[in-house]
Amino acid sequence: MPAGTAKKQIKDESIRMEQRKKTFLVLTVWSVLIVILITQKMAADAFAVILGILGSLILMTPLGYKAAKVLDSILNIAGKEV
């Protein structure tokens, strides 16, 4: 689903709907790819695809934005100590 940021909110319903359609298409293609990989006995590759999707979905949410900001702050602090 489309996720706006604090600085750039997605308010136009037509843009949101278009992004939802694109998201649905991408998820459908990824799902078909996962099924193909599993049927071809490539479970490790399918697992990698699933982890990539989950990571992307988490990072696109407001919680993901906050987590990335916290991680960035931690890395900035760690970088100054080196």
UniProtKB/TrEMBL annotation:
Domain of life: Bacteria
Keyword Membrane tagged: yes
Protein's organism: Pelotomaculum isophthalicicum JI
Membrane-spanning residues: 23-40, 46-65
Protein name (Swiss-Prot/TrEMBL): Uncharacterized protein
Keywords: Membrane, Transmembrane, Transmembrane helix
Lineage, highest ranks first: Bacteria, Bacillati, Bacillota, Clostridia, Eubacteriales
